[in-house]
Amino acid sequence: MRFKQINNGYIIRLEKDEKIIETLTGFLKKKKIKSGYFSGIGAVSKSEIAHFSLDRKEYSYKALNGPLEITSLLGNIATSGSQVIIHAHITLSDSKMNVYGGHLKEAAIGATCEIILKKNNKNLNRKLDKTTNLNLLDI
Amino acid sequence: MRFKQINNGYIIRLEKDEKIIETLTGFLKKKKIKSGYFSGIGAVSKSEIAHFSLDRKEYSYKALNGPLEITSLLGNIATSGSQVIIHAHITLSDSKMNVYGGHLKEAAIGATCEIILKKNNKNLNRKLDKTTNLNLLDI
Amino acid sequence: MRFKQINNGYIIRLEKDEKIIETLTGFLKKKKIKSGYFSGIGAVSKSEIAHFSLDRKEYSYKALNGPLEITSLLGNIATSGSQVIIHAHITLSDSKMNVYGGHLKEAAIGATCEIILKKNNKNLNRKLDKTTNLNLLDI
What is the pLDDT of residues A41-81, one digit of tens each? Predict the structure, then answer.
């Protein structure tokens, strides 16, 4: 992972085989960033994405193996207790330009991933919402 | 709907059954925000999206029922006369991670929708363009 | 192409038949913008998108003819030597709301394209990476 500080945030380049959520979470801890948002483009070698069922109050997961372009990675950064939480959704495309997407559980980078991350000037907390069983923004 | 003021904008959480365009438009009026842009992720329970035909100079609409993840919601805020206008496009994914998208007419939120909204420091106006029959940015 | 300066960047409106990469690159040169990022929505009349193969170290291309909505255009601006380089990925939807996407080689605008472009306060350089044969961010 490489990064450069800009304005109110960072340009981040994730490298081959780095995991998006794991690597970004480590970076946020190191930089003590607790609140923010980001967007990115790039490519993954494998990924696990999810779809939430409000009826069953749980995610279903799907593993996507093989190289896919990241046409959109959008996410935000908040805290839940002492933990930094990344919430991100991703849109991916294959070699036929067909597209897949969902809640990003985790993905390993292919050639590169270029992210713009901006810090918020106020903390954002998440709290378990019993109706949905999700860690929703407590704002 | 819940929100928290940050830097030059707001973090917004839309709640179950709230309509994206209707709820955001009400918020913008209340906060007197006339120019800006936003991005978001979350989920919808039902949505109506559209595709514009330049030949026929009109939108065709498609209703998508059932829970879909919002993998990307991108939009901007401008005015047309005294009205605040939200223009947004959305990308949605189903439980098989297949993806649908288009111009967002309206959508009702599923579990949550988390939006970053930023204000512009100058007004943006829209004006009817006769060639396309669309309300284009008059800049 | 039309534009209006806002905060730390520009609102840009691309017009019918203008090419996204070509027109934006010309604008960046004129405004001497060497580092930044952008997002946009709109529609294209034809486009060429690409998928990168790490194995073959090259892109494969697909031409998409016909009007498609841009549900997401995300990109960044950097330099490679004296050249300004736009790197953008795009997500597109057809009249049945099916979605296609990938690395944006080039696309011609349909009715309109509305872009928010922000400048970074530090330069970003790209450099040929021999492992991937891609011009990666040299940060």
Answer: 999 999 999 999 999 999 999 999 989 999 999 999 999 99
Q: Do B74 and C69 touch (CB under 8 A)?
A: no
The domain defined by B2-119 carries CATH number 3.30.1330.80: yes
A104 CB-near residues (< 8 Å, 6+ apart): A20, A21, A47, A49, A50, A73, A75, A88, A89, A90
Asked whether the beta carbons of A2 and C137 are under 8 A apart, the reply is yes
pLDDT, tens digit (0-9, with 9 covering 90-100), for C63-102: 999 899 999 999 999 999 999 999 999 999 999 999 999 9
ipTM, two decimals: 0.97
Place of tokens 């990924």: A47
What are residue C104's DSSP bridge partners? C49
Predicted TM-score (pTM) of the model is: 0.98
CA dist A64 and C61 (Å) reads: 21
Determine the Cα–Cα distance for residues B1 and A139; give it in Å rounded to an integer: 10
Q: Which of B13, B72, B96 sits opposite A136 (nearest CB)?
A: B13
pLDDT at A68 (0 to 100):
98
Beta bridge partners of C56: none
The whole-number mean pLDDT for each consecutive block of 10 residues of chain C, a chain of 139 residues, reads: 96 98 98 98 98 96 96 98 97 96 98 98 97 96
Q: Which of residues 23-52 of A touch B (CB under 8 A)?
A: 35, 37, 39, 49, 51-52
Q: Is the pLDDT of residue A105 over 90?
A: yes
Q: Please indicate whether, in this complex, the C-beta atoms of B75 and C7 are within 8 angstroms of each other.
A: no
CA distances from C9 to A43, B64, B72, C116 (A): 27, 36, 22, 8
Sequence ranges of the domains in chain A: 2-137
Q: Please answer whether residues B101 and C95 qualify as being in contact, where contact means their C-beta atoms are separated by less than 8 angstroms.
A: no
Q: For the structural domain made of C2-137, what CATH number should be given?
A: 3.30.1330.80
Taking CB atoms and an 8 Å limit, are C89 and A111 in contact across chains?
A: no
Token pair belonging to C98: 């099916």
Closest alpha carbon to B38 in B75, B86, B85: B75
Q: State mean pLDDT over B49-78.
A: 96
CA distance C66 to chain A (A): 15
Q: Which residue in B60, A105, B51, B67 sits closest to C100, CA to CA?
A: B51
